[in-house]
Automatic annotation (TrEMBL):
Name of the featured protein: Cobalt-precorrin-6X reductase
PROSITE patterns listed in its UniProt record: COBK_CBIJ
One BP term from GO: cobalamin biosynthetic process
Pathway: Cofactor biosynthesis; adenosylcobalamin biosynthesis
GO molecular function, one term: precorrin-6A reductase activity
Species in which this protein is naturally found: Marinibacterium profundimaris
Signal peptide: none
Key words of the record: Cobalamin biosynthesis, Oxidoreductase
Phylogenetic classification of the source organism: Bacteria, Pseudomonadati, Pseudomonadota, Alphaproteobacteria, Rhodobacterales
Amino acid sequence: MRPNLLILGGTSDATALAGAVARAGFTATLSLAGRVDHPIKSPLPQRIGGFGGAQGLAAYLAEHEVTHLIDATHPFAAQMSRNAITAAEAAGVPLVALTRPAWRAEAADHWIHVPDMSAAVAALDGPAQRIFLAIGRQQLTLFADQPQHHYVLRLVDPPTAPLPLPDCEAIVSRGPFALGDDLQLLKDHRIDCVVSKNSGGSGAYAKIAAARALSLPVVMVDRPELPERLEMSSVEEVRDWVHQATTLRGV
Ligand SMILES: NC(=O)c1ccc[n+]([C@@H]2O[C@H](COP(=O)([O-])OP(=O)(O)OC[C@H]3O[C@@H](n4cnc5c(N)ncnc54)[C@H](OP(=O)(O)O)[C@@H]3O)[C@@H](O)[C@H]2O)c1
């Protein structure tokens, strides 16, 4: 049986991996949740939408004779990552996660570490400020608990429904973002505080460096914890793992 990879994507890392895998000549499919209107084009065939939980993913792995599962989802896509661990075990398919190291605060940073998005909301208790909320759109509603602030949101797609915050504006823009642009954005919008997930990687880091340059506080949401799994931090490592696993298993 030839190797047949399933890559769980939705990140720039997954896009890069899809390119490397296609160049290496592997048979592979890229899976996307379907959250953005216009996903970046991939040289691999794509499937879009959920599998129906861990059980659904395990059934997909068996039905499509997937030989290797690669979780290249965002570090905050914890449900998908947990499902991948359970499904890979159930289906007897080797799993590797392509992850990015978390960002670490530098001496000049003013980070307020919080364990999750609800704690980020609680950390904004206090007088009205201008907040840059670069967290995607899924958890915006939580911030309605702190309605005193003016929120500047950055979204990949134009909003299709009214935004859930009483005083906010949306900037529609897709990363990677550059330091100069994010510096200008924070200045133009007279931002007092940035809220960010600790996504790691370079594409979303500009706002963190910009906040540092302007001595602004960052409410930094820690990553969700996941069960132990095999993790690699570069596309090359994952590609080599597939080569090696293919040889060892005789796939
Ligand atoms: N969370 C973030 O901050 C963030 C940022 C940038 C990009 N993304 C990307 O956006 C997607 C959704 O993120 P999320 O935080 O909503 O994930 P999540 O909460 O972990 O996933 C919720 C459900 O969405 C489906 N799903 C998620 N990723 C999928 C994939 N790659 N292929 C097929 N189904 C998928 C699964 O549905 P079923 O249970 O039905 O299988 C999963 O249980 C992920 O692919 C992620 O890489 C997320």
